[in-house]
Amino acid sequence: MKFAAVLTAAFFCVFPVLSQTDNYAYFNVKDYGAFGDGEADDTAAIQAAVDAAYNSYGKSGTVYMPRGVYVITDTITLYNCISILGDGHDDSPGGSVIKAGASLPSMIRTAKLNGHHLNIENLTFDGGEDTGWTIGWVLDLQDFLGSRVAGIKIHNVSGGGIYSRWTENYAGSWVNWFVNSQIQISGNYYALRLGSSDSYVNGLVVTGGMGLLEERYGGNLYRRCKFENCYNGITVTNPEGYNCNIAVSECLFENNLNAGISFSFADADFNCFATVTNCDFSNNYETDIELNNASNISIAKNRFKSSNPACGYNVKTTGVSDRISFTDNLFAAADLAIPGYNSCSVGNEFSVSDWPADSPQFWSEAVIWNPGPDGWMRVDFSEPFDGIPVVIAQTVSARDPEPCVTRVRNVDCSGFELLLEEWDYLDGVHAAEVIHCFAIEQGRHSLDGLSVEAVRDVQAAGEWDSFEFAGSFETTPIVFAQLAGDNDINTAVVRIKDIGVFDRCRGADFNNDDNINISDLSAFAADWLNQNSGIKSDLNDDSSVDYLDYGILADVWGYSICSTQGFKAYLQNQESSAAAHGTENINYIGISPGWSKEGDIRVGSTALGSEARWVSYGSSFKEPFFLGSMQSCNDSDTASWRFFESGFAKGGVECFIEEEQSLDSEAGHLEEDFGYAAFGKKDIVTPMGRPVINVKDYGASGNAYADDTVAIQQAINTADAGDIVYLPKGAYKITSSIYLKSGVILLGDGDANTASKILAGADMPAMITAEEAVSGVYITKICFDGGSYQGRSVSNIFRFTDMRDSTLDRIRLINTTGSGIVLRHQSRRNYLRSCTVHADGWGIWLDGWDCIVEDGYCSGGYGSRISGAGGHRIFNSHFDRALIAAILFEDSLGNPRDVLVRNCYMDLNSIALKFDYDIALNTEISIENCIFRASSDTDVYINNANNISFEANSHRSSSEHFTYAGDVDYITLSGSQFSVPVSAEGVHSIYRGNCQN
Fold first, then answer.
1. Checking DSSP bridges between strand 247-249 and strand 232-236, what pairing results, if any?
2. What pLDDT band is residue 512 in, cutting at 50, 70 and 90?
3. pTM over 0.85
């Protein structure tokens, strides 16, 4: 054992960070005279930059505000296709500061009938309340359509936050994104007033004031938001009498003066057709949910933790309310006053004080190696565990080229001791590596939908031994194993292999095939029965002599045979060591591969050898954390693995297998199966610190007439993994397919509007594709135009047979006779975020597995389609005007199982959801918290499908809600709102807690 002493920081290189605007064709406000010093009046300069962008070619562009404080004394007016971008941070809302220098009706306003397709991002708005200024609305977004507010912070304001509204009937204000922002309000003002519809509110934090006001047309989707210290977190009203049709999921409401959510209407028995699921309500003073004249609301799987609300109930009812469905909620209150004659309560628990954990307790942190005098480093958890957890800490950076491994010891509820050790033949002096450490409760768990088994302190030694899982995994898990003790001082690494189902047995090689396995028992049983037929052979006393007696025979011959799941492991010393490693404790964690339900955890595998290889975990994560482990022993030479730190900024990590060289200098290692688990919050890629390749430097014109195909392709071919291929604003005509390669980022200007557009100038099978498998691709802020209005025929805008761990973010697809995004066969673990798709064919076609669609808008054409392996997650998305189905589930290459559709909005489709299979299939599909507003044929069509769960959905449509054909069973209809009578087809199906008009 060689304790690793620490080298100084001078050992490492420091790399410069590029400015956000280096190499980008933005309209920088400082070029127009802005100071950003917090003193000078920058109003005129900012408006001049906006006007310059609007008056430029294409009447579009991005106005950039470098880091600073910009004082304004008049309202800044934005126009169609003009985005304003600050210098922000990846990990928190806010950025460049716009500060009020006077009282204003608004700080930024979109012009009347001129607020389409723009973006406001990475800015902090300071309303100047501390200096006496008042603001009508910080952002007055008139006729806001297809636009985005993201990564902003509003504070120190006496006035309202954001007002999204129509100025005239049908002027257009819908399909907008309000995401990842923070709004702090004081007084009787709203943080966000939605007078528009069909929008996405995701990751919004509102503190103080009146909270959020939902009014007029509705159709908005709320997910993963937090409302605290407001009057009401969300107030839902509709003075003009329209149905609200909203969905609220996975939100937190705490410390609000009146209610977490208030549904309050002037008209008695107002048909809301709203859903509230999977939310937490805590310490709200009057009540958690207020219902005033509110009907047709599904309230399911929420946690009402306000233990002593002033009204006495977690749900307060006034006026005439009815048809409220309460299903599977947890209430701190002792009971529930159920309103009306047609409401229902099923599966709820009351007087709850011991609140169940949403997931197992776990902790992760990247630590810098800094040992104490004894060579070990104490690492403390951020919060103590309830019991002693399982610790894995073998993800080590490659700052120092000397091979090394880790071990842990003395794990307790508050932390553990960590050792970074070089191999015994080395000197033990080592750089301060980054080590990713992970701890989780011992036992079997579901970690946001992923099966986990964590075991600590089992014994391993210098020979292969088998370790069994206590439970089963549906697919072969990824295993992470850690040496956890110091019984043998020789440096060692845990090697594993043969993960999966295996037979454990002992006994003789009865069939002479040089293996001892279950076939020996079969051979012996056959021979025994032949020789002894009818003579004392009914060993299990079932009056029959047959192979059912084999278990008794196994006992007779000393066998112990069973089929189980597990893996094999041993402790491997350096190659020059003649002795096997002594017995030590190890920890191990098995995790099922795939994506977690929220997309914040990705577990997978790839091939890895001694040559460094990019391991992509898909879209960029905020504060990523990475576990890795060899899953095989194809090469018996002693080895571990390391990573390069730079990769974590690019949605992946560069890894390699590292052999020690105690016996010889040869360090090449055969490829092993390499498993990984990446943890973090999904994030967008930013251009900070990345090489930029401008397509115009390769001859692209962007004038919509010249052929830019060759120039764009050359730029892509030149790029290395992690490089940005940048398309400044313009229309880039292509006449043949563009072929992508792994790791490349395509970045345009604006926010999925017409600022940067790739335009089809000829018929083609696909505008964007690849000749081989690709991974780690990122495409954002570009419009793709199929040119159908010019007679062009494009079969697909995007078509990939094998795209993995890639992201399509804020792109817009229009004017195509074919399909929009087609991910076929082998495509997996891709993330489609805030994409708008208008296609005559299929909007989105997922034929692989484990993809996520979030905050998307698909309109027209056939609809969207899911086939293949499944495992997909569709969150917070809007599907309308589909000719076949908003989402068609079918079986082309395999049963599309384990699909989750949550918090989505279906409107004006022929059929909203169509499950259509040739033979009866067990689908394991869940549809949760969705709004079905209008369908011309039926909301849901089910043919030959079993095991589909519909929970807490709202069916506003006057058409049939469910139509069945073929073999249908095991259908669950729970806690939903229906306008017409429905039934759950099949003798094993369940109908519970639903309300019908």
1. unpaired
2. low
3. no
End-to-end CA distance of the chain: 74
Q: Tell me the average pLDDT across 337-358.
A: 90
pLDDT of 582 > 50? The answer is yes
What span, in angstroms and rounded, lies between the C-alpha atoms of 964 and 962?
7
pLDDT-based confidence at 18, cuts 50/70/90? very low
Alpha helices in 396-516 (DSSP H): none
Main-chain dihedrals φ then ψ at residue 379, nearest 5 degrees: -120, 125
The amino acid that residue 963 corresponds to is T
Query: 610 CB contacts (<8 Å, ≥6 apart)?
Result: 656, 657, 658, 659, 667, 668, 669
3-state secondary structure of 716: helix
Write out the two tokens for 166: 């129509």
- In 3D space, the residue among 559, 566, 569 whose CA is nearest the CA of residue 465 turns out to be 569
CATH class as words, domain 26-166: mainly beta
Q: Are 981 and 962 in contact (CB under 8 A)?
A: no
Residue 427 to residues 5, 581, 802, 872: CA-CA distances in angstroms?
9, 21, 46, 50
In this structure, which amino acid lies at residue 419?
L
Q: How far apart are CA 885 and CA 571, in angstroms?
A: 55
Identify which of 58, 61, 100 has the alpha carbon closest to the alpha carbon of residue 78: 61
CB within 8 A of 967, min separation 6: which ones?
A: 919, 920, 944, 946
CA distance readout (Å), 365 to 368, 437, 588, 590, 680: 10, 5, 18, 19, 11
Residue 435 near residue 6, CB atoms below 8 Å = no
Secondary structure class of 824 (helix, strand, coil): coil
Supply φ then ψ for residue 687, to 5 degrees: -80, 5
For 585-642, write each residue's pLDDT tens digit: 999 999 988 777 666 788 888 899 999 988 877 555 656 789 999 999 999 999 999 9
Q: What is the pLDDT of residues 90-116, one digit of tens each?
A: 456 999 999 999 999 999 999 999 999
Identify the sign of the CA torsion 614, 617, 620, 623. Answer: negative
pLDDT tens by residue, 526-577: 554 554 444 445 555 566 655 455 455 544 444 334 445 899 999 999 999 9
Whether pLDDT at 804 is above 60: yes
Count of C-beta atoms within a 10 Å radius of residue 958: 11
What dotted CATH number matches 185-355? 2.160.20
Q: CATH 2.160.20.10 occupies which residues in the chain?
A: 26-166
Write out the E strands in 526-599: 562-573, 584-591, 594-595
